[in-house]
Amino acid sequence: MPNQTNPAATVKPTPGKPLAGQNALVTGANSGIGKAVALAFAAAGAAVAVNFVTDPAAADAVVQTIRDGGGKAIALKADVSVEAEVEAMFARAVEEFGSLDILVANAGLQRDAAFTQMTLEQWNKVLGVNLTGQFLCARAATRAFEARSAPAVSRAAGKIICMSSVHQVIPWAGHANYAASKGGIKLLMETLAQELAPKGIRVNAIAPGAIRTPINTAAWQTEAAYKQLMTLVPYGRIGEPEDIGRAAVWLASDDSDYVVGTTLFVDGGMTLYPGFATGG
Ligand code: BGC
Predict the structure, then answer these.
(1) Residues enclosing ligand 1, CB less than 6 A?
(2) In angstroms, rounded to a whole number, what is the distance separating the alpha carbons of residues 249 and 194?
(3) What is the secondary structure of 210-278 as a DSSP string?
(4) Which residue's CA is the closest to the ligand 1 atom numbered 10?
(5) Is the pTM of this model over 0.90?
(6) Longest Cα pair distance anywhere in the chain, in angstroms?
(7) Strand pairing partners for 207?
(8) For residues 240 and 166, what is the distance between their CA atoms, to the nearest angstrom?
(9) Residue of 109, 167, 238 to test ligand 1 pocket, by largest number of atoms within 8 Å of CB
(10) What are 212-242's pLDDT values in tens digits?
(11) Which pLDDT band holds residue 150 (cuts at 50, 70, 90)?
C-alpha cells in the first residue's frame, strides 16, 4: 500500500506524549542506555517491554519505576542471540500489548582483547549479541508490524531503531569484534531501511559516543580517565543515558516521520576527528 494512503497519516499526536498509545520493545533495557530509553519512552506515553538476559531484579526495577509513574511495562527475559528466545519474547509482547509499534534493538556488549589474543568465543559472543541479535529482533518486529490488526497509532506502520555506536565509523584497536559488529549494524540498518520503507516501516540508528554506563566505567570513573576521554569529545562532557533516551523518543515519534535510514550521531562531536582541532 502506498504510504500516502495510509489511514494512520491522520493520527493526531497527544501534546507532550509523542508516543501515546504506542507499544515498544527495548532490548537490554535493564541498564545503561536501554534503561534510559525505556524510561524516556514510558514518559512519552508508550507501553514498554523491558528485555533483559541477566539481572532480573534490575529489569523489575525499571518496570516498577514505569508503573509507579502511571505507565505500562513488562519485563521479558530473552537472549537476543538465540532465535527461539527472541521469537517467544515477541509473541509474549504482542500477547500482552495487543500489537507492537516500536523496536529499539539496543542490547550489546564488549569482550575486548588485543587482536592476536582475541578468542573465537569473544568474537562470536560479540557478533552474536550485537549483530545477529539485531537481525533476529528486527525480523521478529517486522513480522509483528506486518501482522498488526489493531488500529494504527502512528504515521509509520512500525519503527525500528538500531543502537549502533560511533565505532560504526571510528576504527577501535583492541576492539575488533565490537567495531566489526557496529560496522555491520550500519549496513544492516540501511538495507532494512531501503527494503522496508515501501511497507511504511521506518528503520534508523542512533550512534552514541561515550555515554556514562556500566559498559565503559574504565573510561570515566577516575579523574585521569575522564580527562583523557575528554580529549576525544569536543563538547567537553560525557554523554548521559538520558541524552540517548531523548534522541530515541524523537526518532520513534511522528516528529521524525520523514527520517528513514539515517544514523543519528549523539556523541558530543566525537566523530569530528578532534585530533585535527590543533593538528593536520
Ligand atoms: C562503547 C564505549 C565507548 C564509546 C566511545 C561505545 O560504543 O561501548 O565503551 O566508550 O563507544 O568510544
Answers:
(1) 110, 165-167, 209-210, 215-216, 219
(2) 22
(3) SBSSGGGGGGTSSHHHHHHHHTT-TTSSPBPHHHHHHHHHHHHSGGGTT--S-EEEESTTTTS-GGGGT
(4) 210
(5) yes
(6) 57
(7) 265
(8) 15
(9) 167
(10) 999 999 999 999 999 999 999 999 999 999 9
(11) confident
